[in-house]
Amino acid sequence: EKGGYDHFMLKEMNEQPEALKAAITGRIKNGKSILSEINNLKEFITEKLRKIFVVACGTSYHAGLTFKYFMNRYSKIGVDIEVASEFRYMNPHVDENTLVLAISQSGETIDTLEGIRIAKEKGAKVITISNVFGSTIPRESHGAIYMNTGPEIGVAATKTYTAQIAILYALGAKIIELTQGSNDEIRDILKGIEEMPEVYKKVLKLNERIKELAREYVKFQHMMYIGRGFGYPTALEGALKLKEISYIHAAGYQAGELKHGPIALLDEQFPVFAIIPKDSLYEKMKSNLMESKARNANIIAITTENNNEISQLTDEYICVPQVHEALYPLAMAPVIQLFAYNVAILRKLDPDKPRNLAKSVTVE
Ligand code: F6R
């Protein structure tokens, strides 16, 4: 059942080319979103929609945050996001002009479920993205989009995270098309998602190199993940993966926030893991790496292929193929996942069953 892999997590990370393909089949074609699951909400979207509010926990929240960056850049409709355990107790500003987007792999997370119940009472429409057919949250929603990635057994979310991002982009593209018309850049991004399974085959081959990095960095007690823009949710997800399966203290920060506090932590014992694709914020990230280097922090970076100066800025680096700026969260996800996995293995931990965690969080 592990298909020859040592762990479900390793199997599921390696399934990402097929899982992503399954997630977008019938939803993205030739750069166009053909998502039909929201057909019953078309009128609501074109006539009433004023705001989108994303509600999710953990890794699903990080997928949602990536969607927020996407929509803020390309859509006229604003996106708010809150973790479900906060949303449900905060008197969230949602009404009959709001689309609440619940993201839950299991479809059973209690905080997310209670969140959508509150949203519905306030008159909002709810769409859920889930991987478990017939689970409670999608059943209680006005629309459900199932990821179709096949079951995820490892406690750490991997293939469902990348599937979530791909589906969120397809959904976002559909909303943009309905509310403001289609555009070429969105088409390029969706085409890039259709090519992502091939990109994944290349990225997954980096595992031997990632293992080497894990061997060098397993000795540290801490790791600071940093990113900007689309790289920021990836930094958060990298930190979550590392802490949950390797029990190494890790935190993700917006790189621009370093000088407002976190940089005080950095020294030769506290390394940085930088998400630094060649994108519109590249030069800004570069300055943040220099600041970190000046504190003697060791630096690992994930960047874009053919970045000739990265070796001067970092101690170690990994390159992924060049993709559209909005797609680095997808292209880089397997790298942060594999890094956490390899560190856990070196620490002799079982990544499929991290202590104190459950696959489905049905209690508060
Ligand atoms: C991390 C992880 C958790 C879940 C979170 C939400 O790897 O798996 O952070 O993402 O518990 O779960 P779902 O998506 O089932 O609502």
From TrEMBL:
Keywords: Aminotransferase, Cytoplasm, Glutamine amidotransferase, Repeat, Transferase. It is found in: Cytoplasm. One of its GO terms (molecular function) is carbohydrate derivative binding. Its EC number is 2.6.1.16. It catalyses: D-fructose 6-phosphate + L-glutamine = D-glucosamine 6-phosphate + L-glutamate. This is Glutamine--fructose-6-phosphate aminotransferase [isomerizing]. Residues 41-181, 213-354 form the SIS domain. It comes from Marinitoga hydrogenitolerans (strain DSM 16785 / JCM 12826 / AT1271). It is an enzyme of class 2 (transferase). The keyword Cytoplasm applies.
